[in-house]
Design goal:
The protein is of the alpha+beta class. Helix content is about 15%, strand content about 25%. The chain contains twelve helices and 38 strands. Helix 4 packs parallel to helix 5. It is globular, with a radius of gyration of 29 Å. The N terminus is likely disordered.
Length: about 725
Amino acid sequence: MAHDKHDGKHDIAKTHSPLPTATDPRRRSLLKAGFGATLLPVGGSLLLSACASDDDDDDATPGPGAPAPQPEPEPQPKNVSSFAVAVLPDTQFYSRYATDAENQQFMRKYGSEPFKAQTQWVADHAKSLSIPFLIHLGDVVDQQGKPDQWKVADAAMKILEDARVPYSILAGNHDVILDRDYVDASSQASATDAQRNLAVEPYLQTFGAERAKQQATFGGRDPSGFHEYHVFQAEGQKFMVLSLSWRISDAALAWANQVIRANPSLPVILVNHQLLNIDKDGVTPLEVPYGLMLWDKLIRDNDQIFMTLNGHYHGAAHLTKTNAFGNPVEEMVVDYQMAYQGGNGLMRLYEFDLSNNEIRVLSFSPWVPQKPKGTLNTFDQAVLTGANEQFTIKMDFAKRFGGFNKDFKAAAPTHTALVEQARALILANYTDPAATEQKPAADSEDYPQVSGTLAHWRFFGGADGQPVQVGEVVADRTGLNPVRRASLNVDGVAGAQLGDVVWSNDHHYLSAAPGSVRFLNTDKNTARMSYFTTGTAAALNAETAPNGYTVEAFIKIDRDWTASRHAWMNIMTRDGKRGALPGFSGGDPESPPLLFAVSSLREIQWEVVPERTGTREAKTNWSGEIIADKWLHVAIVNDNATHETILYIEGAPVLRNASDAPGLATLAADMPWIIGAGSWDGARADGFFGSIGEVRIVGQALSPAQWLTARKR
């Protein structure tokens, strides 16, 4: 996301790549067994004492009758003064897909729900793990106008209330009626808390001020009721959590500044739904206009704010900035909603170790170990160990807080590291499923060739970097449906050139096809695009797949993809206007009957009108946000027996799937299939920007062992 140029005053930023990882509990045994060394406490420090002999005359072999050497005892974990804060990133899909309207996907498949599993785990372990407080990062629900989603969230958070575990909560963009992003200073005139009709906002009806006041830590809310602060005590010290909802007004910013001034000795954790983003690589922190506005108007000149937390952006990243007092502010974004199962119950613990002057971060799921063993797959991870998921922040608390609290100090040590205790609890009697070994193809024919294949296009054969000629044919392995590069600048296309589609040797590591085609220079605003099309007499044009189907594609979105130029680009479609289908009653009648596309949020969209008589509308599968510049295998499996259509990304089933969508409607036998573009109201539109390696369509539901990512047996 682009952002306005900032003046840069007092905001020296440091990215963390790679970040230091938390201590591996196996390290001690590795040191002893692997290096012949023991850690010995000497005067409060640790020295590495070698066990091997030196070159003097001492005989290392015990004499006759001498006792056998005893192994050194392993050092015992030291007690520390610390506490842990639990953090719930965006729970929107947990609230949505636990409702009857979404077929109770969690309970039906797993017998439990991730949102309740998270809050119950905190309720169960708050005392033993010294968790005085929980922070929710917003997007409590996915669709604010659906009361049943609020009921799911209400029940999950009530678990904390019943256990008397205090928490803060805030409204994300999905929790407010008008969701409009911040662009620049002029944005403050609309869509903030100041412009809302407070009497009708669902967030305030479920999580209003009266409910918040029941928290023992509650300090107050601003006049709008959207922003709140809490003060909790741990290890003899007090901390403030200042929690700001989506699109704060200038008046509420003044309130937030006043709250800090009224509590001048408290270290402050600032919580907001949107503040720090993640760059295209999925790792590097990226600042955005709204976060920079908060930095200028709230964070930079309030030394008490030492840490910020936000969700909204999918993934995790960490940025250290320097405030106007020359002190570090640790900014962190974490949001798992686009991971497997809408986040798979993943959450965080932040352990504030006052004895060792560090903050230890653990990212984990209390839900995964609860899931029935037979449902687990390689995407189920109970503890995340990536550099942006498990790390330690060094912070001399007394020094960092010295400018406003000279009496800050650690309490007497009473317990061992809390994140290690939590890790042990999560992994007790649980082991992550073994990763399935997947082998690259031995040659171009090393893939399962299955019966019922309707079409299979493999885009390779030309010289790397050279244009695909207009009219050049790419064969269909069935021999029935070859595609050719379409003529330039027809059917509404403008500005297309020969070099807009080129051959490439690049391909997904599991694709047996040793190449791809790359679509360049696509721009939806000027209607510039290039594509491939079947002939009007191709057998596939009339196909409706009445017995189910599997569609597979290897794709890579170009690294320079932007929503403004490439949103809703099509990987594949079939021509025609779905509004002309008998019985069609849904939206966008100008759209084609099939859309295999990429949304404005870089989600994979599979949307089809079923092949049935009577009233019908389009049914849609959605993935989470996918990373640009990375090869992906996408599979859509329509099972005629289960009546489900499931979308898989790199083998992982997505959460937002469709049911009762038999077959693939077509308007006429002469309506072609298109690779690399779509249509709108009969004109060519929404060209693809990136690479396509293979596309296969099979007239039956295939198992993963039959996909193009498997090997020939």
